Every structure is written in structure tokens, then in C-alpha cells.
Amino acid sequence: FPPAEDALVDERLGEDAIDTAAAAAMDGVDESALMGDHHVSAEYREELLRAYTARALTEAADRAGRTVVVD
Asked: pTM of the prediction?
């Protein structure tokens, strides 16, 4: 997701930067893709996108041998 990537440029890899990038991930998604249905709401799908983005960034940092800075 380019908006999430852009949010990390020139930023120290910390919890705040990861949270900002996870929130920015929504900027690259057509909201109609997150429409709710009888299984889950659109809000829940949005929260999943944020959570999975944050998890992926944290795991990528770990694999690269980087430590996520606690802000």
C-alpha cells in the first residue's frame, strides 16, 4: 500500500510510525471493498486492515533484525 509506505519515509521505526502507517493503509483502499455484510461490518474490516498492516510491519522489522522502538 503506497500510502502506508509513504507514511514510513524518513521516520524512525517506532510504534507511532507503525500506527500512522497502518491508519494510512486505508487511504489506498476503495471504501466499497470494505462494505459490511451479514458476516462482519465495514468498521470491523477497516480495523482488520489496520491490525494486519501493523502486524506485517512489526514482523518485517523483526525479520530484518530491527527493533521497533517503543514511543
From this structure: 0.81
> Of residues 59 and 34, which shows the higher confidence score?
59
Contact 16, 7 (CB under 8 A): no
Is residue 1 within 8 Å of residue 7, measured between CB atoms?
no
What are the residues whose beta carbons fall under 8 Å from the beta carbon of 26, sequence distance 6 or more? 3, 46, 49, 50
| Mean pLDDT of all residues in 13-35 | 87
DSSP 27: G
- Residue 22 CA neighbour count, 13 Å, CB half: 20
- Lookup result for grid cell 487511504: 27
**Which of 35, 55, 53 is CA-nearest to residue 44?**
35
Nearest-angstrom CA–CA distance, 46 and 56: 15
